[in-house]
């Protein structure tokens, strides 16, 4: 995994975990990599993974079964979508609006490009 300097590593690991759920690689109600396993895979300190897992637990995306390991929630997919939607609206959308305002880009132009983009996904 290539880490970006603009964001804390543990938050990037939260994003990675969310992506694993959305891609269906971490299935609902099943065990996910242990703190140590993921630390080795991503080549980071286990404390960094633990910090990311704590956020995932706070959001209800995963839980720790003492002595057994971490498991995704049965509704992990929906919880990830809600978490990522909230993050997008609070963090990324204001930057998009600022750029649209400064560059005089209309919502119509954005909508047109979005429709073009989604049509390529559905093809």
TrEMBL record:
User: Ranges for the HTH gntR-type domain?
Assistant: 7-75
Spell out the InterPro entries in the cross-references. Answer: Tscrpt_reg_HTH_GntR (IPR000524), WH-like_DNA-bd_sf (IPR036388), WH_DNA-bd_sf (IPR036390)
UniProt superkingdom: Bacteria
Cite a single GO MF annotation.
DNA-binding transcription factor activity
| Keyword vocabulary terms for this entry | DNA-binding, Transcription, Transcription regulation
Q: Which Pfam families match?
A: GntR (PF00392)
Q: What is this protein called?
A: Transcriptional regulator, GntR family
Lineage per the UniProt record: Bacteria, Pseudomonadati, Bacteroidota, Sphingobacteriia, Sphingobacteriales
